Each structure stands twice: as C-alpha cells, then as structure tokens.
Q: What sequence folds into this?
C-alpha cells in the first residue's frame, strides 16, 4: 500500500534537502484526490511489482507538492494546477510536463439546496447563487489545484466571498468534504473523491458538466540540473510507467466495478518508448 503521511511530517518522510534517498526509492509528491479516490494505491502496487523501486508518495495540495519540488525533496510530481505547473517549469524547477489525465469537479451541497443551485446554467452562476443566498461554502484554502479552481470560479462569478459565509478548512479533499457535510455547506470537490466518500456523507451534486469544471492532471520531473541529487532514473521509470498501456488500462477501468462508472479519463497518446518491458 502507498505510504501517505500528513504535511506536518514531510521533512521526516522525504528527508532534508541534500540527503538523497536510496536509488531504489522514488519520491512522488502528488495531489490528495489521486490518493483519496484510491487510484494511487493501484498504480503504486503495479509499479512496485517487479521489486526494482519503492514509491514513497505524499498526498498534499498541488501547491505543496510543487513546493517540495522547488526544494529538491521530491523526484517527480503528479499535480493538477495548470497555471502553477507552467510557472514551475518556466522557473526551471521541472521538466517534461505532460498532461495525461482528467476527471471533473462537481459542486456539492445539502439535499435541501437552500441556494437553489440545481437550476444554475453553469458553475459561475452556481457560485453567484450561493453568495446571494448567503449560504455557507467550505473552501480547501490550501493552495491546491482544487482551491485554485475554486478561486477562478469565484472570479468568473465576479464575487469575493464574504468571510461570514466562507469557511477555510485548510485541509485535503477528504477532510474538506467531511467538514462541509457536517456543516451542511456547499463545496467544490473532484468527482472521484466524492464518489469514494458518497456513502458516508449526505451532500449531493447540485451542479456539474460545465467545461470550467474539467480537472486536468500532469506529471512533472524535478529538474536534475537544479537538483542533481534527485533520483532521476527512478522518476523517469515512474513517469514511463504511468505513460504506458498497462497504466492506461488500470486508470480507465478504475471505478467501474465499485462505482459503476469510469472515474478518470486518460488523454495521453501512448508512445512506444514508454512501453513496459
């Protein structure tokens, strides 16, 4: 199983900058939605099956994951914050950014839907209705890809959330969903994590399907020119594995047996040099 630790012990888990992990260890910094949905465990088990590498993964917000990359404390990133990803590469911290996967966000709320969000034509209109009704909204507020998407939706709605009706959780997706459920509040979530938690919460999807709610994931290699002690070989091995036919098959089948629907959609066109031997 994937070893996931909270952000408070990142330094203990990945070690301090300048102290490289063994060559058999690949340090992956990734987003919580990949972990909370269960997809990361499946990919990890398959990647480790030949015994050559051990994947040490930590699930944090995309912003925190990229911060680990900026200090050389990760070998490879799996994140979903496109603007930040481009900046990360432009500043020389990462290479080979490859967008390969997507799922989507949904807006969740209590069954009573006090803000009447279910009739909204798009996500921006949904946010306007939440604000107009002075309904409570729970934000991840953790600089994650989900948080950045949420801020874009508020901007598209032309609204700055009022603090009295805006709760900043500062947690990952699962923790934020639990708080929103407890408070009977509205929240933005990735569909995969919502489905994984659906049986344990009372929130319902009140808005979905807007193009603005597409959620794209990318792999980024940490730049060895800037951080020569990162495990370049191991990172490239995981990079190649994820961009292979076996990984694509696992990803496209993930969720079908448990939820009756595909949770992630593979966008990358497989290249022969990324095939598993």
A:
């Amino acid at each position: 199983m994937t070893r996931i630790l909270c952000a408070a012990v990142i330094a203990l888990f990945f070690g301090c900058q300048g102290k490289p992990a063994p060559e058999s260890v690949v340090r992956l910094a990734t987003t919580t939605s990949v972990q909370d949905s269960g997809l990361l465990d499946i990919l990890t088990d398959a990647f480790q099956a030949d015994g050559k590498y051990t994947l040490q993964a930590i699930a944090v917000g995309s912003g925190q994951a990229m911060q680990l990359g900026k200090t050389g404390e990760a070998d490879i990133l799996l994140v979903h914050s496109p603007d930040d990803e481009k900046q990360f590469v432009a500043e020389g911290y990462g290479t080979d950014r490859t967008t390969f996967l997507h799922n989507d966000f949904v807006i969740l709320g209590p069954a009573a839907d006090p803000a009447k969000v279910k009739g909204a034509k798009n996500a921006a209109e949904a946010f306007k209705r939440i604000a107009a009704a002075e309904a409570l909204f729970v934000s991840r507020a953790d600089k994650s890809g989900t948080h950045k998407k949420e801020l874009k939706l508020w901007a598209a709605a032309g609204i700055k959330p009022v603090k009295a009706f805006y709760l900043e959780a500062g947690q990952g997706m699962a923790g934020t969903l639990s708080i929103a459920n407890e408070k009977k509040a509205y929240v933005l979530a990735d569909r995969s994590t919502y489905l994984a938690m659906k049986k344990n919460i009372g929130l319902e999807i009140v808005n979905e399907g807007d193009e603005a709610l597409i959620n794209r994931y990318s792999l980024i290699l940490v730049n060895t020119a800037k951080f020569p002690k990162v495990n370049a070989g191991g990172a490239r091995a995981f990079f190649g594995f994820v961009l292979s036919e076996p990984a694509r098959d696992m990803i496209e089948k993930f969720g079908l047996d448990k939820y009756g629907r595909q949770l992630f959609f593979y966008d990358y066109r497989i290249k022969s040099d990324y095939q598993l031997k």
The first strand starts at residue 25 and ends at 31. The mean pLDDT is 90. The CA atoms of residues 124 and 156 lie 6 Å apart. Residues 104-213 form a domain with the D-Maltodextrin-Binding Protein; domain 2 fold (CATH 3.40.190.10).
